[in-house]
Records
---
Amino acid sequence: MMIMKKSGGRSMDLSVTLAIASIMTLGFLIGTMLWNLDTMKK
């Protein structure tokens, strides 16, 4: 990830990084829940 970009504003980079992190966390949680449900069915 390019967090040390000088051209953009620091707050912009921070918000983008936070958004990517939250999306990754959400995807991980949903994937874990789906995997648990799939394992329980068997």
---
Amino acid sequence: MASMVEERVSVPESFRDLKEEEEGEEEDEEEDVCRICRNPGDADNPLRYPCACSGSIKYVHQECLLQWLNHSNARQCE
């Protein structure tokens, strides 16, 4: 199914992996989660930030984003 979605939706080459936690950040901060499924990222399904959104809507899993773009017929972030 992912191949059908990838054919319809163009994912930018610059789709970046979540940066590792910067030195000096507090450990008790809330964990970053996907803006669509609300789950954290992991090694198999990392969080990405493909657009200029920030705050709690900054991060997304690639598969979640592809499914959302396919379902919404959107071509870019709102």
---
Amino acid sequence: MKAEKRKIKTKKQSTEDVSHIEDVQDVNRIESDESSSEDDDVDLTASRGVQRERRRVEGEKLARTLFVGNLPSWVTKRRLERLFRRALRTSGEAPQTDCSVESVRIRGAVPVTGGTSKQARKRASIMHEFAAGENHTLIAFVVLTSKQGIPAALKLNGHWLSDATSQPATESGNGRHIRVDVCSRQNSSFKTGRSIFLGNLPFSVNEEQVRNAFRRFGEIVNVRLVRDSVTGAVKGVGFVEFSDPSMAILAVRGSDNLEVGGRTVRVQFWKSMKKAKLRKGGDSGGGGGGRYLG
């Protein structure tokens, strides 16, 4: 009888021990889950913090980054760096000596073979191989060390960039009027009130041809052509911005039968073009799918 009681007691203790072990395991599991959850929360918070800091750094860098368009195919990073350093050094609006050029990136090289891989584009940039030949337009991004140099750098908008380094630059030979703007602007700096829209442009046209055709109507501030994002070819449309709205009026009224590159160009006010686009439900008239590369 005593042996049976002892066996029952031992069995009860064994059951209690197992139950206790299971309870401890459950507690450990809960604590582990809570700890893991806390770690996940910490990781998530840290990740969000890292993302916020990355966005802040990228935004700060974008605020001092300049877009440079309509660059000739022969331009080099060193040439652009010298140009912007000189502009920062000689401008009265940037007397500080600590503002300089941090980096220069040139884009727009399209391999002759039509390849779009990173390696193919890199080779095309190094070897100066372009699908559109010598008339191909490059773009660049110039990062300054400080936002204070932006006003001085913007004075280079419309600057004639020539391959002649030893003699005074004149608007002849192998050169381009470059376009300089701030990358951080959400909208283009083009002023619609003094700009015109161009249609039916030749696919082989370049900015200088358009500028030469319309300079008779007044001082031109900017010329932009819509280009294919892969090949860099002109999509047949573009814009011209004048220094005064009256010049845009003259251009629209006086451009009947005006030819550029052997084709009669369609000219209208940019505002009228935008209203027509809205009425058609956003149809871009053949200019969609591209982007401004110069």
